[in-house]
Amino acid sequence: MGACSRLTCQVPTAFAVEALAVIHGLRFAFELGFQSVILEGDSRLVIHKLGTSLEDFSEISALIWEVKEFSKLFEVCRCICAARLGNMAAHAMAQYGLTRREDRFWVEETPLLVVAVTDEGRRLLDPP
Predict the structure, then answer these.
(1) TM segments (predicted)?
(2) Which residues pair with 106 in a beta bridge?
(3) How far is CA 49 from CA 18, 35, 111, in A?
């Protein structure tokens, strides 16, 4: 489908990075024309904040608000928490992005490192 790696600077907390990644992912999915998306993240706190209707007063409240507003552009937008072990492809993309020092976008392809991590994950889940 698609993948992206965005270089961001001066983000104050890991929670802000997670929320910002959701915003970038939603924007990318919207630009590719997707109508339904499933957001997977390994930050339980961020996913919880996205899934609640309660007003958020944390340091990432503006980012959470932006995600919620942007998600209204989709017919379906679900948020689920994925354990870090189940999210290795995203982790590999983040590591790859740190080495490139620039924004990168892929449509119907991904870096070979991410393919290798995904294939290994499949082998672990469904051994021959």
Answers:
(1) none
(2) 3
(3) 12, 22, 31
Residue linked to tokens 């991410």: 114
Total of domains in the chain: 1
User: Which residues are CB-contacts of 111 (< 8 A; sequence separation ≥ 6)?
Assistant: 3, 92, 93, 96
Its pTM stands at 0.77
pLDDT digit string, tens, across residues 17-69 = 889 988 988 998 999 999 999 887 778 889 899 988 888 899 999 999 999 99
Residue 62: give the domain boundaries: 2-125
